[in-house]
User: What shape does this take?
Amino acid sequence: MLTLADGPLELNHLFYMDDLKVYSPKWEDIVKAREGIERVAGELGLHMNPSKCAVHSLHLPRPDNTADGMEQIPVLGSNSLYKYLGAEQNTLVDMDHLWSRVREKALASARRIMLSDLTVRQKIN
Assistant: This one.
Protein backbone atom coordinates (compact mmCIF):
# COMPACT_ATOMS: atom_id res chain seq x y z
CA MET A 1 0.00 0.00 0.00
CA LEU A 2 1.34 3.41 -0.96
CA THR A 3 1.52 6.12 1.66
CA LEU A 4 2.54 9.78 1.59
CA ALA A 5 5.91 8.74 3.02
CA ASP A 6 6.60 6.86 -0.24
CA GLY A 7 6.81 10.19 -2.06
CA PRO A 8 4.80 11.46 -5.02
CA LEU A 9 3.08 9.00 -7.31
CA GLU A 10 4.56 9.16 -10.80
CA LEU A 11 2.33 8.42 -13.76
CA ASN A 12 4.05 7.05 -16.86
CA HIS A 13 1.16 5.52 -18.80
CA LEU A 14 -2.62 5.23 -19.17
CA PHE A 15 -4.05 2.03 -20.60
CA TYR A 16 -7.67 1.46 -21.60
CA MET A 17 -8.63 -1.56 -23.71
CA ASP A 18 -6.43 -1.23 -26.81
CA ASP A 19 -5.51 2.44 -26.25
CA LEU A 20 -2.28 3.35 -24.53
CA LYS A 21 -0.73 6.71 -23.63
CA VAL A 22 2.89 6.72 -22.46
CA TYR A 23 4.41 9.71 -20.64
CA SER A 24 8.10 10.54 -20.34
CA PRO A 25 10.29 13.63 -20.07
CA LYS A 26 12.98 11.92 -22.18
CA TRP A 27 12.85 10.81 -25.82
CA GLU A 28 14.97 7.74 -25.03
CA ASP A 29 12.32 6.48 -22.61
CA ILE A 30 9.62 6.83 -25.27
CA VAL A 31 11.78 4.73 -27.60
CA LYS A 32 12.25 2.09 -24.86
CA ALA A 33 8.51 2.08 -24.20
CA ARG A 34 7.77 1.55 -27.91
CA GLU A 35 10.23 -1.35 -28.01
CA GLY A 36 8.63 -2.93 -24.94
CA ILE A 37 5.12 -2.43 -26.28
CA GLU A 38 6.07 -4.02 -29.61
CA ARG A 39 7.70 -6.98 -27.80
CA VAL A 40 4.66 -7.64 -25.59
CA ALA A 41 2.22 -7.11 -28.48
CA GLY A 42 4.25 -9.53 -30.61
CA GLU A 43 4.02 -12.19 -27.91
CA LEU A 44 0.23 -11.79 -28.08
CA GLY A 45 0.20 -12.00 -31.88
CA LEU A 46 -0.48 -8.28 -32.24
CA HIS A 47 1.44 -5.38 -33.75
CA MET A 48 1.52 -1.60 -33.45
CA ASN A 49 0.04 0.38 -36.31
CA PRO A 50 2.26 3.48 -36.77
CA SER A 51 -0.56 5.28 -38.61
CA LYS A 52 -2.59 5.17 -35.37
CA CYS A 53 0.33 6.32 -33.21
CA ALA A 54 1.74 9.75 -32.43
CA VAL A 55 4.15 11.39 -30.07
CA HIS A 56 2.78 14.55 -28.47
CA SER A 57 5.81 16.62 -27.57
CA LEU A 58 5.28 19.49 -25.15
CA HIS A 59 8.85 20.74 -25.10
CA LEU A 60 11.29 19.06 -27.45
CA PRO A 61 11.15 18.12 -31.12
CA ARG A 62 12.21 14.69 -32.34
CA PRO A 63 16.01 14.38 -32.17
CA ASP A 64 17.66 14.86 -35.56
CA ASN A 65 19.27 11.98 -37.44
CA THR A 66 18.26 9.16 -35.11
CA ALA A 67 17.58 5.64 -36.27
CA ASP A 68 15.52 4.63 -33.26
CA GLY A 69 12.57 2.97 -34.99
CA MET A 70 10.33 5.98 -34.41
CA GLU A 71 10.64 7.37 -37.94
CA GLN A 72 7.10 6.30 -38.98
CA ILE A 73 5.43 7.79 -35.90
CA PRO A 74 4.60 11.50 -36.27
CA VAL A 75 5.45 14.04 -33.57
CA LEU A 76 2.60 16.42 -32.77
CA GLY A 77 3.42 19.95 -31.67
CA SER A 78 2.33 21.40 -28.35
CA ASN A 79 -0.70 23.08 -30.00
CA SER A 80 -1.77 20.00 -31.98
CA LEU A 81 -5.17 18.57 -31.15
CA TYR A 82 -5.70 14.82 -31.00
CA LYS A 83 -8.39 12.54 -29.62
CA TYR A 84 -8.00 9.90 -26.92
CA LEU A 85 -11.09 7.79 -26.21
CA GLY A 86 -13.11 10.27 -28.28
CA ALA A 87 -12.16 13.37 -26.26
CA GLU A 88 -9.94 16.14 -27.57
CA GLN A 89 -6.56 16.28 -25.89
CA ASN A 90 -3.89 18.97 -25.81
CA THR A 91 -2.61 21.64 -23.48
CA LEU A 92 -5.22 24.18 -24.62
CA VAL A 93 -8.46 22.16 -24.24
CA ASP A 94 -11.05 23.80 -22.01
CA MET A 95 -11.93 20.88 -19.72
CA ASP A 96 -15.08 22.57 -18.38
CA HIS A 97 -16.38 22.93 -21.94
CA LEU A 98 -15.38 19.34 -22.77
CA TRP A 99 -17.22 17.95 -19.71
CA SER A 100 -20.29 20.06 -20.56
CA ARG A 101 -20.37 18.49 -24.04
CA VAL A 102 -19.96 14.99 -22.57
CA ARG A 103 -22.82 15.66 -20.13
CA GLU A 104 -25.08 17.01 -22.90
CA LYS A 105 -24.45 13.98 -25.11
CA ALA A 106 -25.02 11.55 -22.23
CA LEU A 107 -28.30 13.26 -21.29
CA ALA A 108 -29.45 13.27 -24.93
CA SER A 109 -28.72 9.54 -25.22
CA ALA A 110 -30.55 8.84 -21.95
CA ARG A 111 -33.57 10.89 -23.09
CA ARG A 112 -33.67 9.12 -26.46
CA ILE A 113 -33.64 5.72 -24.74
CA MET A 114 -36.18 6.61 -22.05
CA LEU A 115 -38.60 8.18 -24.56
CA SER A 116 -38.34 5.23 -26.95
CA ASP A 117 -40.89 2.42 -27.35
CA LEU A 118 -38.57 -0.09 -25.69
CA THR A 119 -39.81 -2.06 -22.71
CA VAL A 120 -38.60 -1.04 -19.26
CA ARG A 121 -36.29 -4.08 -19.16
CA GLN A 122 -34.78 -3.12 -22.54
CA LYS A 123 -34.30 0.48 -21.42
CA ILE A 124 -32.48 -0.56 -18.26
CA ASN A 125 -30.34 -3.23 -19.88
Notes: The two ends are 36 Å apart (CA to CA). The mean pLDDT is 79. Residues 41 and 47 are 6 Å apart (CA to CA).
